[in-house]
Amino acid sequence: MNTFPVAQLKQFRDEITRFMMLYKFALAELETKVEILQEEFQLLHDYNPIEHTKSRLKSPESILNKIRRKNCMFSLPEIRRNIKDIAGLRITCSFISDIYRIRDMLLSQSDLTLIEEKDYIERPKGNGYRSLHLLVGVPVFMSDREEQVCVEIQIRTIAMDFWASLEHKIYYKYEETVPSRLTEELKEAAEAAFYLDKKMERLQDEISQIKSEREDELELKLGQLLGQAAPLQISPELLRLFSGSE
After folding, report:
1. Which residues are catalytically annotated?
2. Any long-range contacts for 179-185 (C-beta under 8 Å, 24+ apart)?
3. CB distance 30 to 23 below 8 Å
4. What is the DSSP string of 133-175?
5. Contact at 8 Å (CB) between 116 and 152?
6. What is the tens place of the pLDDT at every residue in 155-199?
7. pLDDT in tens, 11-34
8. Is Kinase set as a keyword in this record (predicted)?
C-alpha cells in the first residue's frame, strides 16, 4: 500500500503560498508608493494627476489557465519567467500628459527597475485599445532574502479606461466572437475617446494659461499698489521707546 505523500504536499503548499505572497507584497509596496504620490499632490500642489487606482492579483486558477494557453511547464520558476502579469496595478488619470508624468515619477524611484515598456497610446492595438504598460521589478524583503518581483502597471485616462471596460464586457458577452461590424464600431469608439482626451487636454491647457496670466496681472497690480503707498510714519516718541533712550 502506497503511503500518501503528506510531507511532499505540505512542501508544495508552502512553496505556492510563498510564491503568491511575494506578488502580494510587491503589489502592496507599489500601492504604497502611489498613495504617497497621491497624498503629496493633494497637500502640496494645486492639481493631482492620479484619479484612482485598482490592483489585482491573479488567482491560482487563472495562472494555471494561462500556463495551459502558453504551453508552459508547470513549475514555479517557469511560471515566474513566462507570466509577467500575476500582480497588476491600474492607475487612472485625467489627461494623456498625466500618464507620462506618473510614469516618470515612478521610474525615478531608485528601488524600481523598468523591465519593459509598451506604449499603446502612441501605437494602439488593432482594436483601438490605448494604455501605457510598464513591467517593473519591485524589491520584496522577506525574512531570509530579498526578491525582485515583476508587477505590471497600466496607466490610462478615464476615457481609455471607460472604453477598455466596456470593450471587455462586450467581448465577454459574445465569448470573443464579436461580429466584424461591431469590431469596427468599437474601433471608431476608441478613436472618439482618444479625440475627447486630446480636446479636454487642450481645454485644460488654455484654462491653465488664462489662470496664469490673471495671477501675473494680479501680482503686477499688487506690486504697483504697494509701490505707490505712502511710507510708514513712526512718531519720534515711539522710536525713543524702542531704542530705550529717554
Report:
1. 152
2. 183/127
3. no
4. EEEEEEEEE-SS-EEEEEEEEEEEEHHHHHHHHHHHHHHHHTT
5. no
6. 999 999 999 998 888 877 666 677 788 888 999 999 999 999 999
7. 767 788 889 999 999 999 999 999
8. yes
Distance CA 95, CA 201 (A): 6
Residue 69 lies in domain? 9-159
Instruction: Indicate the number of domains in the chain.
Output: 1
**Contact between 152 and 88 (Cβ < 8 Å):** yes
What pTM was computed for the model? Answer: 0.80
Rounded to a whole number, what is the distance in angstroms from the first to the last CA of the chain? Answer: 113
Q: How many residues does the chain have?
A: 246
The C-alpha cell that represents 62 in the structure block: 487563472
Strand ranges inside the chain, DSSP E: 50-57, 87-93, 113-119, 132-141, 146-157
Nearest to 31 by CA among 91, 97, 107: 91
Is 229 within the bounds of a domain? Answer: no
Give residue for cell 487563472.
Answer: 62
The answer to whether 50 touches 34, Cβ cutoff 8 Å, is yes
For residue 25, tell me if it sits in a domain: yes
